[in-house]
Design a protein that fits this description.
This protein is of the alpha/beta class. The chain has helices at about 10-20, 35-40, 60-70, 85-90, 105-120, 155-165, 170-180, 190-200; strands at about 1-5, 25-30, 45-50, 75-80, 95-100, 125-130, 135, 140-145, 145-150, 205-210, 215. Strands 2-1-3-4-5 form a five-stranded parallel beta sheet, sandwiched between helices. Strands 6-7-8-9 form a four-stranded antiparallel beta sheet, covered by helices on one side. Helix 3 links the parallel strand 3 and strand 4. The two termini are about 25 Å apart.
Amino acid sequence: MRLLIVEDEKRLAVSLAGGLTAEGFAVDVVHDGLEGLHRASEGGYDLVILDIMLPGMNGYRVCSNLRAAGHEVPILMLTAKDGEYDEAEGLDTGADDYLTKPFSYVVLVARVRALLRRRGAGAAAPVLTVGSLRIDTAARRVIRGEDEIALTAKEFAVLEQLALRAGQVVSKAEILEHVWDFAYDGDPNIVEVYISTLRRKLGAAAIRTVRGAGYRLEAS
């Protein structure tokens, strides 16, 4: 899952991004409303965490512009305000949920997961079946036959990207973009490390390397 955080308090934004990355999400961060609107409009995000008080364009306007353009991405609004009018205005512009600062990080994660589950309930079934593998994207479990295969958050995220396009080639760049984040500037060979780990756990034949193109999850 790929999230966009639009928050001008940089320490808070970095803290949230770090925590959500540790939860297995790919996270991008911007610090003003206009850039947030631009990035969210490009699509590719599963959820937007949107502050209300932003430079350039406030969160209400970002949200209403996204909805007017037909973007249905779930939006969780953050604000330091706590009046009923502010909450009503946020929801009226099309936000899906509302969280007042200061908030518990645990509550934020719970709200994010609830919004993603709600979105998934109206979309494709959260269980992906590829050959003998069953990948439960909601419970984050991988089962083969009667056995559950234990994966870390990042391992699961890599496998999920391959499973969503099972039988097709997924490039290293696409995996980096969706599993890590837009600004990742570390060693791109990190993808190969995780592919190698997945092969040890799933079987060497489960993931095929297509030289010069990427990786393909096979239905074995």
